[in-house]
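Lab notebook, bench 4. The sequencing result for the construct came back, and we need a structural model before the next group meeting so we can plan mutations. Quick request posted to the team channel:

Model the 3D structure of this chain.
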Amino acid sequence: MATQIAGDDDECSFCQIVQSQTDTEILISDDELLCFRDVKPGAGHHYLVITRTHISNCKALRAEHIPTVERMAEMGRNVLEKNKVRDLNDVRLGFHVPPFSSVPHLHLHALAPASKMNDSARRRYGPQSHWFITVEEALSQLRTRGRIK
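Done. Here's the predicted structure in token form:
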């Protein structure tokens, strides 16, 4: 099942975070989303925004998820601003495309400064990565095709 209530998947580490079963520090949360630091940062600032509802990955997204993706991006920008990232033009906001997702639960990466990412991080999150789709690309595909290719 692509979408389910978080916590239904006992194996999912992000569902465990949603259910407060870990000591992960939640930086921002609301009824639909929550945000925390990435444990393997690819930039000076690297945060993850996840859905409280278990959605397996970005390929499970459909046109009806557009507002969710927009809210995820907004929360990603907000956490960057709260952590004193001044140049919001030097950020990467996006998703890893399966099979390159490390955790099978939809999560948006918010990274800054993008210009200072090392080579390894650029390969994983940079503009040339085949593994990473930006929020803009994801929204464009959802609006035109109704799904992510």
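Residues 1-7 have pLDDT under 50 and may be disordered.
Will bring this to the meeting.
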